[in-house]
Amino acid sequence: MSKQLGRLGWGLMTFLSLGIVLLASRYLSLNPDVFFPQQRNVYIAHELGIMTHVVGGVLALGVGPFLFLGRLRAKRPAIHRWLGRIYLVGILLGSMAGFYMAFYAYAGIAASLGLGLLAVAWFYTGLEAYRAIRRGDTASHRAWMIRNFGLTFAGVTLRLWMPLTIMLFGASAGYEVVAWLCWVPNLIVAESIIRGWFRGRLVQTAQLLQRS
Fold first, then answer.
1. How confident is residue 208, by pLDDT bands cut at 50, 70 and 90?
2. Domain that holds residue 122
3. Mean pLDDT, to the nearest integer, of 140-153?
4. How crowded is residue 119: how many other Cβ atoms within 10 Å of its Cβ?
5. What's the whole-model pTM score?
6. What is the pLDDT of residue 7?
7. 184 Cβ contact list (under 8 Å, min separation 6)
8. What distance in Å separates the CA atoms of residue 52 and residue 72, rounded to the nearest whole number?
9. Rounded to the nearest 5°, which phi and psi values hold at 85?
């Protein structure tokens, strides 16, 4: 049952990640009509920054889910390592450009602070994951990678939360809220996965439902 839940979670995570990869890839067309309307002028003025951030995010979201495939790690370790290198390049590009672009975030300082801290945490957790695997600490590497991909997944959750926050609070305040909401809960969920806080309860609940 736990394996089935894991496969379901991985499938949903991968589906959403690749969906956002396709959506975000439209930015690479350099067509201003696909930009977030309130940020269109800023993106045009800082085209290199936003394009670098998009390329990094697309690499990380596109590759990230496949790094958690245990079978790939076991049977094709060389492929896993190369995917990991591509992923970390994406994190480096995405986080540095994201930090730069955070200074120009729509809605002001609250949004800039939220997105800036996201970029810093994204870079730091990626660095720690790299340092852990370099010293051969696979357990620590896995934990840092889970935290890091939770932050990478902010590219998905931002777009899931944004319509609701804008509807509830308006465009400006809604963007301030989503600048934090897109990643802080992700990090909490990542930590719960690492520490196994909810896994046992989920399995027990699934078993009870199966018996009923």
1. low
2. 2-211
3. 97
4. 22
5. 0.89
6. 83
7. none
8. 29
9. -65, -45
Structure tokens at 91: 């994190």
Instruction: Provide the mean pLDDT of the chain.
Output: 90
Over residues 154-179, the mean pLDDT reads 94
Amino acid identity at 156: V
What's the total number of domains in the chain? 1
User: Given CA atoms 169, 171, 175, 181 in this order, what sign does their dihedral have?
Assistant: positive
Least confident range from 15-19, 46-50, 198-202: namely: 198-202
Burial of 109 (0-12, 13-18, 19+ CB in 10 A): exposed
| pLDDT tier at 2, thresholds 50, 70, 90 | low
CA 111 remoteness from chain centre: 17
Query: In this structure, what token pair is assigned to residue 71?
Result: 């079978």
pLDDT at 206 over 60: no
Lowest mean pLDDT across 7-11, 133-137, 150-154: 7-11
Per residue, what are the HEC states of the chain? CHHHHHHHHHHHHHHHHHHHHHHHHHHHHCCHHHCCHHHHHHHHHCHHHHHHHHHHHHHHHHHHHHHHCHHHHHHCHHHHHHHHHHHHHHHHHHHHHHHHHHCCCCCCHHHHHHHHHHHHHHHHHHHHHHHHHHCCCHHHHHHHHHHHHHHHCHHHHHHHHHHHHHHHHCHHHHHHHHHHHCCHHHHHHHHHHHHCCCHHHHHHHHHHHHHC
